[in-house]
Every structure is written in structure tokens, then in C-alpha cells.
Amino acid sequence: MRAIRTSSLSPSPPPSSPDQPQLPITTSPTTKLACAGFCWGGLHAVRLTHGTAEYKVEVTALDGTTEVVPLVDCAFVAHPTWLQIPDDIEKVVQPLSVANGDNDGQMGREGMKALMEVLEVKNENGGEGGGTRHEAVVYEGARHGFAGEFGSFSPWVFQSFLPWGEGAVG
Q1: What is the structure's pLDDT at 12?
Q2: Measured between alpha carbons, how far is 148 from 159 in angstroms, rounded to an integer?
Q3: 17 in a domain, yes or no?
Q4: At 45, which CATH number?
Q5: CA–CA distance from 107 to each of 21, 127, 138 (Å)?
Q6: What per-residue confidence (pLDDT) applies to 116?
Q7: pTM for the complete prediction?
Q8: Number of other CB atoms surrounding residue 48 within 10 Å
Q9: What is the pLDDT of residue 69?
Q10: Number of domains in the chain
Q11: pLDDT, block means (10 residues), the chain with 170 residues
């Protein structure tokens, strides 16, 4: 499968309070939003792609119409932890790109294999909206934390994500 290739807090959202005012969100119909999560942040970025009610928001377009939309249009995660595989991946409906090392001590090879299998089935079934919407990239020799090693972000990780992300959100 083309999209599966080789190359590397709190698990729940904060509760909303009825005492906090809900501010309207105004957006353009062409506004697109991606998110990225690394390590434990990968869990939260993946969950933002689930498409369930807690990860959606009502927006008001410039013409005054309102619509309920996902909080993000796609997500990128690197060396994610705390994922419940396959459950967290089976719930994904927005495009997702996962980068992991083949020597990751957190997810392990079996976890990554299971994640890739779920994404492959989703892509074969056309996903929501059709076409290849998800990818997994395994970086040979990379261990957990590779995207931020040596105290700085590794920009080469985004070389994988950016072309996919632009295609994923149109």
C-alpha cells in the first residue's frame, strides 16, 4: 500500500464548565487546521481526528450560516504514546499521518504493525471522503523521541508530513 512505507497528561479532554461562556467561532469556508502531537501529545492529536461530538465545534461562516465541524482537518503524530491500539486508531475519521521509529520502545514493533494494519484497512475502504487519507512512516533505526532529539525539533520529520498534509486537506 502506497501510504504505509518505511523511511521514523491526561488522556481525556478537559471538561467544559456550564459557567464558562461559549464564544462563537467565525471562520472562512476555506480555513483548514492541522495539529501535531509528539510522544504523549500524539494521543491527543489522534483523538482530535476521531470526529466524535467532543472533538467538534460549531462555527459561524462569514455569511452568517453555522455548521458543526471537526476541530482539526488532519493530524500528524510522531512517536505517539498511550494510544489504545486498535481502538484509538479505529475511531479516526480525519486524515492522520503517523511517524515512528522501528526501534521505538514505547509503542513497539507489534503496536506499530497493528496501527499500520488499521490505517491500511481504512485506506482500502476509501475512508470518509474517499481516497488514501492516512499514512504511517517508519524510520529505520529511529528510537522513541527521535523527532525532538538533541534538544531541538528535527525538521526532517515534516518533510514526510507536509506533502501529505497539503493533499489531505486539499
Answers
A1: 35
A2: 14
A3: no
A4: 3.40.50.1820
A5: 39, 24, 12
A6: 95
A7: 0.75
A8: 25
A9: 87
A10: 1
A11: 36 44 54 87 95 88 86 92 95 93 90 95 74 82 76 58 71
- 3-class secondary structure for the chain? CCCEEECCCCCCCCCCCCCCCCCCEEECCCCCCEEEEECHHHHHHHHHCCCCHHHEEEEEECCCCEEEEECCCEEEEECCCCCCCCHHHHCCCCCEEEEEEEECCCCHHHHHHHHHHHHHHHHHCCCCCCCCCEEEEEEEEEECCHHHHHHCCCCHHHHHHHHHHHHHHC
Say which residues have a Cβ less than 8 Å from residue 114's Cβ, sequence separation at least 6. Answer: 85, 86, 89
Residue 148, pLDDT score? 72
Residue 136 lies in a domain: yes
Residue 131 belongs to domain spanning: 4-8+27-169
